[in-house]
Amino acid sequence: MNRMLSILSGCATAALIGACNAPSEQSAAAAGNTQYIMDPHSYARPAEAAATHLDLDIHVDMEKHRISGTATYNLKRQSGDSVIFDTDGLSIEKVTLGDGTPAAFTLGAKDSILGQALRVALPPGADKLAITYSTGTEAKALQWLAPEQTAGKKFPFLFTQGEAILTRTWIPIQDSPGIRITYNARITVPKELMAVMSATNPQERSADGAYSFKMDEPIPSYLIALAVGDLGFKPTGTRTGVYAEQGVVDTAAWEFADMEKMLEAAEALYGPYRWGRYDVIVLPPSFPFGGMENPRLTFATPTIIAGDRSLTALIAHELAHSWSGNLVTNATWNDFWLNEGFTVYFEHRITEALYGKDYNDMTNVLGHQDLLATIAEIDSGKHPDDTALHLDLAGRNPDDGMTDVAYEKGYALLRLIESKVGRPKFDAFLRGYFDHFAFRSITTDTFLVYIRKQLLEPGKVNVDMDQWILKPGLPGDAIVPTSRNFALVDAQLARWEKGTPAKDLSTAGWGTFEWMHFLRRLPKHGSDAKMSELDAAFHFSDSGNSEVLAAWLEQCIKNDHEVAYGKLEEFLTTVGRRKFLMPLYQALMATPKGQAVARRIYQKARPNYHAVSVNTMDQMLAWKDKKPPATF
Ligand code: BES
Ligand code: ZN
């Protein structure tokens, strides 16, 4: 495994808080206001030569499933005679310098996780180069969808997913979150389609299929994103709006009507939104995540369209990343909790402002349940240290270490600190943190130095940060959340268990979270008749709410309710969101009979899944046939 250096700018400010005391760092700061950290997941050596700006000029071939064109970089050079980029599966046709002369380049050995280093020789003073390239057939960032896999069924669709280290499969790039660049792009697509990016976006389609984009704020590579399809746009406010396939735009805009209010609530908490517009694109259901915080344009799964606006906390989460993650970024994937833990905290603050305390108490309990289940699972696996907040993912696929721990244990730590110092102080601290580290990538250490100095030491706060951050497990002082709504749910469940018929339970006014809790708490009874009774009373199988349906289907598997397997198969072959796939396949894999069902469904569903989900599910099912999906 190659351990290389990544770059962090702004050591001058870090020096104020004591982070830059080593002599070499001080002189680096004096020379170029620069601090370096290790990123085990990038070949780049930004201390020598770092990209500062990208001009991307590419064509998207929706038939051949190929992107080709030129990536032109401006470089900041400090030493050495070369620059190194990350690539994975790319064909590099040529590299030229700013003056048009060809540059010598070599591709290093292939690593199954990191891909290949592209090293370009640079004469003294050369600070610009252009890489002409095309993508390979198994570019993991890209999912090419056939018309049948879209809502409209008429046009193909493409979307990219960069986080964590997939951008290198569609752009030759220094693919470390510690390196930030601005970018411009010119993208050509078939003229009946529209292209959008994590940048300034069109609201109408162009006549010739050519689109131009600008991202003027420096962002890490994993936030560069592109989607191409039969898209339409509808505003939800002055700064917010929704992109989706034409037939989905109106429904999506209705569902996300609160976006503008969320943006205002977020700004009231932690300062101005720094990215101009905030839009969301609703992708086809194979999108492997709930959401992805691509700047200016969150990418989202359609499974949050429930028809009652009950699953929009996910939008609050992705919006919150505009501060925690996109403004202040984890410097390496070992520091992933800095992105996600802070974002879950911020998400809860937004939803509390909009929907109140009862709502938040419920999501707190659900999150805490997820955390306990994840810790138990990690404890019984190969990497028990993954329950620490700071991770050691060197030599591993970073994706494999990104679990609920970063989200929910990270959140639990921030909540604990908040409870000790009080909200006003904690809010002032967070506001200062986002401003202080704005447009920078930081490590857990840098955060620790900062919070100790700014908040913990002055307030004499008694929290064992090292225990929380560096050690596995959930410390005993974690706050255990409770919810009065859920207490009512528990009471009804107890009645049902004692014999009250399901149809006679008092469930009036229950929403998505109450039902999720009800289903999660359902005792394992293995009775087909009882499952039928519940379904007849509450119509879970027909639920248009993906969270409720997924929780129900999981119980159907655990209780051998095979009547529901048709629905299960339909769900698993249309939805590619990994969070739903994992517990369902896992429940099936628990019995020999279930394993056969899992393998049969997976065989059929796998071509519909994104590489990110395929990677996880192949491992879970010990899948041998690793052929790329048939659509390639
Ligand atoms: N940044 C993540 C998605 C991600 C994580 C992509 C790790 C690649 C690697 C995003 O912000 C996220 O957390 N999405 C969640 C939803 C959220 C409400 C917890 C998801 O997709 O489920
Ligand atoms: Zn997130």
Overview of the molecule:
By secondary structure, this protein is an alpha+beta fold. Among the domains are: 328-470, Neutral Protease, domain 2, CATH 1.10.390; 503-621, Peptidase M1, leukotriene A4 hydrolase/aminopeptidase C-terminal domain (Serine Threonine Protein Phosphatase 5, Tetratricopeptide repeat), CATH 1.25.40. It contains 19 helices and 22 strands. The strands form six sheets. It has a six-stranded mixed sheet with strand order 6-9-4-3-12-14, with no helix packed on it. A five-stranded mixed sheet has the order 16-17-18-20-19. Strands 10-11-15-13 form a four-stranded antiparallel sheet, with no helix packed on it. Strand 19 and strand 20 form a beta hairpin. Helix 6 packs antiparallel against helix 7 and helix 13 (512-521) runs parallel beside helix 15 (546-558). The longest helix is centred in the middle third of the chain and has 23 residues, at 357-379. 48% of the residues are buried. Mean pLDDT is 93; it is low at 1-33. The protein binds ligand BES and zinc ion. Ligand BES binds next to strand 19 and helix 5. Zinc ion binds next to helix 6.
Q: What are the defining features of this structure?
A:
5-stranded mixed β-sheet, binds ligand BES, disordered N terminus, Neutral Protease, domain 2
